């Protein structure tokens, strides 16, 4: 087929059935989609996958050698099971299990090498793949015929693609071969001057080498060229839109002498840290200009971000506008409302008898409010008498109207989608100023920081009276007695007048979030279900924490019950709170000094950092115990060891990136399966990103609309379409 190009539908190249599978399972529609579906990694004969590093539940493709096979009758049903033990050449082994497929023993003879694809499970302490797909690298050698699928693996470097059960890596490789052999390569959009100065190979060569590398050196050069294309497209988009944004109109909200902010500062019973003062000046300057602020406030847990945000909100109210604080949970929104109202005193109760008539009102908007209360609150928001509005996603609903929304503060921005944040911002006549806060930068935030699209302020200094948090891993599989000691530490903290949290990954109301048991004789492989709040609380009350006052908190409790439990805990009427991650952000109980996180390996790095930030918020030292069955040397255990070793939020974000990659920086998912940044690494390619930004700024200074570079404009449209460009700008 000589007329095929990158826009040709795959059905015309690889057949309807295969094309349908590629579309359905991998979102690949055209020849160009497949060309940019680059290998996840490259196996090399003699350099085999270390099977000891495989995670339970992970979808893998491994290069391995058959060591031995065994066929035995099944115990609980008729028929036989074939067990095949394969090795990686370095001591690691996997068991492959096939039910009622004894005939495969003829294929899977000891000594043969193959690629095996499936989901890693565990059965009685052994890693296994249940009925994995496979292709044997010497298949057909006995009769002199080599299967087409295996041709792709004849070279030294074997590409392993992001795949699906219905479309294994060798099928993708066969399709890629067809495309490479029949499709006219796209023209090179990168200007020749830049290619020469940056020592970049041409695009056609890069695409061939990324799929069928002739050497490790050429593979590196190809990856660098394609990573450059991604970085350059993103940088051109960000620089161009940032230039446009500088011209957007926004109402200036300068400081006013003698206003609410001045009175608030004068009444503070403590001195602001140098960091809080410096960041406050940066934000105040942003608010005073006629284009919208777009700033990230990165603050270590307990560094006082909320106080900095409140001072910015008061500046906007002083300037005649309103400020909205968007919180991810009702527990946090209610606590923010209670805390801010308390801090403002009479200045936040302008509508009450003991309030300051020159002050403002603080409104709370949540989904669980009754109709009458909601109407009353929304009227205050609409007429502007409520200068400070605090709420959950309920603020986004139709019918919540502001008189003059000047500032949007998003607390724990990783808990909200970009579209949700933008829905609130759209409630202003002109673009409002935006401040997003986080205690742990998540991948997308780090991405934007690396790209330089956000103005960033960092709070690293803890206010006076805050205590550091000691974190320790409790390895119960290796040292079961350590768990008993953990519960004794909780009792000791309570005996000293303090309180504690016990965090579980699951609620435990069966039928909703409980795992279903595996079928008979299938893979008794998955890990046990995570521990649950409703199971753990009574066990603790009857066992190691007997005699302590224990409360339960989770997301499925009615709002009034959640609030009552938090009030009781805050008031010291409960000793221990057994909870899910509903306490992850913002919950502030200074007397809580200890936290035990059960099945800690089931949580992400960001969650663990956020959770432990609930302790050590007073004058007494904080203690966080990470309980896990993960054994030393596994990725899960290494992740926990890293969390225990540092309180540095940026370092933990980098750890998150190293382990999870960046996710989809250019799409609505923060860690989607299919990332449009396929080769660019925000950690490894920082220098490349910096070079791309410099070139983007230089090129756009000469040619703002890229009218002299139509191919480049088209490439940007492909890599960064309008929706994704808008997503980047919403940030």
Topology:
Elements: H1 11-14, H2 16-26, H3 31-35, E1 41-44, E2 59-73, E3 80-87, E4 93-99, E5 113-123, E6 126-130, E7 133-136, H4 148-151, E8 157-160, H5 169-182, H6 192-197, H7 203-211, H8 216-245, H9 260-267, H10 274-287, E9 294-299, H11 305-318, E10 322-326, H12 330-344, E11 361-365, H13 371-383, E12 386-391, E13 405-411, H14 418-425, E14 433-438, H15 443-451, E15 455-459, E16 469-475, H16 481-495, E17 499-503, H17 533-542, E18 550-553, H18 559-570, E19 576-579, E20 592-597, H19 605-612, E21 622-628, H20 635-645, H21 649-660, H22 686-702, H23 710-719, H24 722-730
Parallel strand pairs: 4-6, 9-14, 9-15, 10-12, 10-13, 11-12, 13-14, 16-21, 17-19, 17-20, 18-19, 20-21
Antiparallel strand pairs: 1-8, 2-3, 2-5, 3-4, 5-6, 5-7
Keywords: ATP-binding, DNA damage, DNA repair, DNA-binding, Helicase, Hydrolase, Nucleotide-binding
GO molecular function, one term: hydrolase activity
Organism: Catellatospora aurea
List its traits.
18% strand; 37% helix; nucleotide-binding; 731 residues; ATP-binding; 6-stranded parallel sheet; DNA-binding
Detailed description of the structure:
The chain has 731 residues and is α/β, with parallel strands linked by helices. It has 24 helices and 21 strands. The protein has a 7-stranded parallel sheet, with helices on both faces. A hairpin with a 5-residue loop joins strand 3 and strand 4. Helix 9 packs antiparallel against helix 11. It is globular.
